[in-house]
Amino acid sequence: MSTTPQASASPFAVSAEAGRFRVTRPGSANDVIDLVREKYIQIVDLKFTDLPGLWQHFSITLPEVHPDLFDAGIGFDGSSIRGFQEIHESDMLLRPDPATAFVDPVCETPTLSIICDVVDPVLQQPYSRDPRYVARKAENYLRQTGIATTCYVGPELEFFIFDSIRFGQDQHCGFYYVESSEGDWNTGRDEGAYGGGNLGYKQRYKEGYFPVPPHDTLQEIRSEIALTLQQAGVQIEVHHHEVATAGQNEIDMRFATLTRMADNVMIYKYVCKNVARRHGKVATFMPKPLFADNASGMHCHQSLWKDDENLFYEASGWALTSDLCRWYIGGLLQHAPALMAFCAPTTNSYKRLVPGYEAPVNLAMSQRNRSAAARIPMYSNSPGARRVEFRCPDPSANPYLAFAAMLMAGLDGIENRTDPGDPLDRNIYDLSPEEARNIRQVPDSLDAALAALEADNAFLRKGDVFTEDVIQTWIEYKRKREIDSIKLRPHPWEFYLYFDT
């Protein structure tokens, strides 16, 4: 994450010097229409996010693109979208946000993509279960508190690129099979189909950070992803291979304001998946697809600013942080069990959140220590660089809901002056059992995280940011569609453990 937010007040106006490209996003409906003409656009694609966090879309032709589209919106069937409406109340509207328009670098047909807000046509109001609306309400609530004017977020998304993935389960069988030419398990494979023999140079388990090619076979694909993201107006700072074998990667975006960064995360996933597919490979943001190696996280850097002042900086404070920053951390740590329901929202997330593998399971704060849930990066002493890195989230999260929930927890900590406890600047895994017992940990399952959310959600409902309906719909969806369905199915390892009983 970059260190000078004030230098990027408009994160989508990028200079040629910064990246040998220039993207300026439109600000009004007329700007979009002008862009359509300028770029010889033939199709306009309308994108929005369902409640679990996947992009949905449909496309319209140019005669349908006019200023009224951005005010009146365009209809769609909300009952077919996960977490949205029932069949008897299915009619919904999409209202394109002109500030999000970008020439889609994935499509061969000249296409302009626009991210949309969801509107209830009966009430003519934003739809309460639209994740993007939740994020925008969180930013509005921040300003209403008078604490700050802006929340900057800089997530570090990790992901895998595999050569192939096969999986399935029915009444009599269940399996998954991941393949990667980088995988350490393939040192003995006859790779004649890949050019003859075996070329070696596999990534050893937990040693993927940062060998150069030929160990790192994905350098060119990551570069293509980074440049494609920049074409879409998402500024990229760095990319590299990550710790795990078999194609774990990280491409870091420059920070942005909360809702805008959630938009960027959706663009990021879209581009990663489609560029990988161009190369006959598959990208996944599933947190833990491999056993016995590191999983994929989404460490979230956060800071609060009042105009051009970073409120998290204090020259005389611990790790150069202010009281306000430490209270914000206190809120994150206090509400972390409930936050995990949005920040680590899958059953697979909790195969990552176990001790070891750099997993941030301990609810403590530290400077530099990556085994703590909340960390203060110490790369720079600049006032603009002071921020908290919350390490528990993973990239399966809906970014609109996760970023909004973290902000609300931090604000609750500030409002209540919540003490985060003493810094823990030692290796947490080297603590004695007596010392370790005094450190709270994140929940060990999605079920436990949802129970924590049921018991602790008042901080989310402040300012009507998360409505009761959104929280209950989320809990019900996760329990019925994910937790219960996993509980009903035998696991392959159970056959190893129990078949001979």
UniProtKB/TrEMBL annotation:
Reactions mediated catalytically: L-glutamate + NH4(+) + ATP = L-glutamine + ADP + phosphate + H(+)
Keywords, in A-Z order: ATP-binding, Cytoplasm, Ligase, Magnesium, Metal-binding, Nucleotide-binding, Phosphoprotein
Positions of L-glutamate binding: N294, A295, R352, E358, R370, R391
Gene3D superfamilies: Glutamine synthetase, N-terminal domain (3.10.20.70), Glutamine synthetase/guanido kinase, catalytic domain (3.30.590.10)
Modified residues (O-AMP-tyrosine): Y429
Residues the entry annotates as binding Mg(2+): E156, E158, E242, E250, H299, E389
Free-text cofactor note: Binds 2 Mg(2+) ions per subunit.
A GO CC term attached to the entry: cytoplasm
GO molecular-function terms, A-Z: ATP binding; glutamine synthetase activity; metal ion binding
InterPro entries the record matches: Gln_synt_N (IPR008147), Gln_synt_N_sf (IPR036651), Gln_synth/guanido_kin_cat_dom (IPR014746), Gln_synth_cat_dom (IPR008146), Gln_synth_gly_rich_site (IPR027303), Gln_synth_I (IPR004809), Gln_synth_N_conserv_site (IPR027302)
Domain of life where this protein originates: Bacteria
Name of this protein: Glutamine synthetase
EC numbers: 6.3.1.2
Organism: Paraburkholderia domus
Residue ranges annotated for the GS catalytic domain, each copy included: 131-501
GO biological process, one term: nitrogen utilization
Organism classification: Bacteria, Pseudomonadati, Pseudomonadota, Betaproteobacteria, Burkholderiales
Chief location category: cytoplasm
